[in-house]
Amino acid sequence: MIVWINGAFGAGKTSAAYELIDLIPNCTFYDPEVTGAQLHHLLPPKKLAEVADFQDLPIWRRLVVDTAAAVLAETPGVLVVPMTLLRQEHRDEMFGGLASRRIPVRHVLLAPEETILRQRIAGRAECAADPEPAGGWAHEHIGPYREALAWISADAHTIDTSALTPYETAERIAEALRTGEARECGIVQTPEPRAETVASGVLLFDEQDRVLLVDPTYKPGWEFPGGVVEPGEAPAQAGIREVAEELGLCLDTVPGLLVVDWEAPKPPAYGGLRFLFDGGRLRGEDAARLLLPGSELRGWRFVTEDEAAGMLPPTRFERLRWALRARERSIVLNLEAGVPVGGR
Q: Which of 24, 191, 219, 279 has the fewest other C-beta atoms within 10 Å?
């Protein structure tokens, strides 16, 4: 289990985390700031200069998930992670990545009153070797923190730490974990594959023949509606099930096959067979009724083929491109790694 301690910069997350590891048996401390610092040794300066915050680098978010999972594999128990997360899409991606490894997350928010928070930031800046950057960075993020409070408060167990010492804060966290007040986050994903998989996607179109893409919470980038075919399940039926689960849309007929693609294994991915089916055209009123489960999908869009090229990973876009050609010609195409084979 992971206890993720969130809050504004200067809220006392790290101090409380250090106290907490002494209150919970089999508890380990992991600070993602350490992973961020290592990026200066891993990435060229030009890449680092592209962002103002290392959290905006996909590699940081992946490494934090991988590192947390590796630490728990080495030292099973509870992992305490003090880290400010103000962007919901980052939370979705990282907590979803942990959920895919079957690692539950308890999300805790430390929320002192803003006047107290500003006083603490000022006090820390006075003690810093370079007070202006130390205090300036934290003050700059009070606004974004305030804007993020709506989704964080809805997701996390909130503790007002205005009058609490770090030890008292840790006691409150430990008690919330013991009583179940700090509940497991609702992002639950299919475990990551350990061998080749079979997956089905369904292409749905609007009245302008634009294709529907969805934005998963548990990984970066856009995707087709669909997912892994379960044992004993037919690929087309898997597509129908996934569309119903992801979008609340019940397909009246079995969708026709457009392409079957063999995806080569590229470690750490295992590859496997990928089916794309034609789910047909949605009327405007049907599209307006599409539902999104917050634990799996963040959004959806109808896009043109050119727009999809900038939203999908290259391999997935090639699969879409050939599926659209197959739909135009009313044929089925056999692909290997996104390239047609078999003379058609």
A: 191
